[in-house]
Amino acid sequence: MPIDEIVLHIGMHKTGSTSIQSSLNRYDDGEIRYAHLHHENHSIPIYTIFSESRASYHIHRRRGVSEDDVLKNAGMWKQQLLAELDKDRRKLIISGEDLCYLEKDEVESFRELLKQHCNRITVIAYVRDPVSFVSSETQELIKSGAKITDVPHPNYRSRFEKYFELFDDPAPKLYRFRREDFPNSSIVSHFCGLIGIEEPTGTKEINSSMSLEAVRLLDTFNRHGVQADGDARLFKARHHFLGSRLIDRQSQNRTVAASATAERKVLAHLS
């Protein structure tokens, strides 16, 4: 018997996706299941399976994963995905913000595989205000080791338009990312309400923002220090350094001023 509904949560980035994924990881009440695909963030396996650019995927590149290992993982994760799609469940949840980075034909291939195993697919995404997105994404890029040369843009159209073109019954559902609009200001509570499950006990809102001083220090290190891309040992050392030394999980994001008029128009169009 096919799955009645697959819920496809596609981000966007910087809208609490990590909190959703961490909270629902291994969720299975016998009817609704969060897909088990080796990573709680399904971006990595799904992108690796379906993208023609899998070998240059930024996660694999930063971790120094060889092209042979990328192909090996793609095959392994596809088998895991097929096994999940064969589960006797009423609803299956797949969540990955990097699914927005797949090309249209790659999304179509993903859709066709899912359609073989379910009655309908519901696409859900949260959309962040352009200015707060720029602030949060800039910080995330600096944390990842990037040298910031330009202001990152939300690029709403390139993220979402292909999903509106490929999924129309039902159409994708976009929700503004405003914590004050969510139950208990919780993105996890809001998402669980949308998909019809009780919020798991012990859920946490994950916030790994840094102080302005830490951002400045790390940006300087990125420009003049040792680069970690492509070396698994340096990647792990950098990750440990950030987790234990620089990140203040209680600090608030500083707002980065940016001109966002054009992006706001696109957001209004897609809403």
Keywords summarizing the entry:
single chain; 11 helices; five-stranded parallel sheet; alpha/beta; 271 residues; Rossmann fold
Describe the structure.
Helix content is 46%, strand content 11%. With 271 residues, the protein is of the alpha/beta class. It has one domain: Rossmann fold (3-Layer(aba) Sandwich). The longest helix has 19 residues, at 67-85. The model is unreliable at 247-267 (pLDDT under 50).
Helix-residue proportion: 40-55%
How far is the first residue's CA from the last residue's CA?
A: 35 Å
Succession of helices and strands: EHEHHHEHEHHEHHHH
| Helix/sheet category | alpha/beta
- The CATH topology name reads Rossmann fold
- Our Rg estimate from Cα atoms comes to 19 Å
Number of domains: 1
Q: Describe the sheet with the most strands.
A: 5 strands, parallel
How are the strands ordered across the major sheet?
Answer: 2-3-1-4-5
CATH class: Alpha Beta
Q: What's the overall geometry? A: globular
Query: Which oligomerization state do the chains in this entry correspond to?
Result: single chain
Low-confidence stretches: 247-267
- Approximately how much beta-strand content do the residues carry? 5-15%
The CATH architecture term is: 3-Layer(aba) Sandwich
**Number of helix segments?**
11
